[in-house]
Amino acid sequence: SASGVSALAALTSVLTTAGWLAYGLWAGLPVVWAVSVVALIPGIWTVVLLRRETTRLDVAAAGSWLGVQVVAAAVGLFAAVLAAGVLVTQGPQVVKSVRESDLSGIAPATWWISVLDAATWGAYGVAIGDAALMGYGVVLMASAAIVLSRVYWTRRHGPTVDSASAQLQGGYQP
């Protein structure tokens, strides 16, 4: 089930991972580009799995994000845009997890991996003095904390009044 999973987050995540790959190559950080290459595989697969959930608006928004990355690279702001990019990649999922009560499609293990990811890259960023990696770590950690708390809240307390009302009207599919 893809309930609660954001197709836009999947699309922008693939584009941002490709951006990190380019950044790693440009900055001479082999660990960054190597991890990015590996991360593209499940990212692309997720986009494929969510193809039926993806709207034209999702594709347009993702295309806009790609445009922002290209312009940022051209004007020397690529690192800053990538650091803020975690807001673009995780923001749609954070918003969806806050707005919806059926989050059965979200795997908590994925978000615990995000906690580890944020801590690892954030610490590496501190160690080498890379602001892009530090910013990535902080924002991803906050995003993961929000999504995990919502997943656990909805699983513990069940559907909210809004989703229970939708279920009575036939619009909610558990």
Task: Give a written overview of the molecule.
The chain has 174 residues and is mainly alpha-helical. 80% of the residues lie in helices and 0% in strands. The protein has seven helices and no strands. The protein has helices spanning 7-27, 30-49, 56-75, 78-99, 108-128, 131-157, 161-168. Helix 1 packs parallel to helix 3 (56-75), helix 3 runs antiparallel to helix 4 (78-99) and helix 5 (108-128) runs antiparallel to helix 6 (131-157).
Structural key phrases:
0% strand; 174 residues; 7 helices; mainly alpha; 80% helix; globular
Given helix and strand content, the structural type is: mainly alpha
Q: Element order, helices and strands?
A: HHHHHHH
Percent helix:
over 70%
Mean pLDDT: 87
* Spatial gap, N to C terminus: 10 Å
Question: What global shape is seen?
Answer: globular
Taking Cα atoms only, what radius of gyration do you get, to the nearest Å?
17 Å
User: How many strands in all?
Assistant: 0
Number of helices: 7
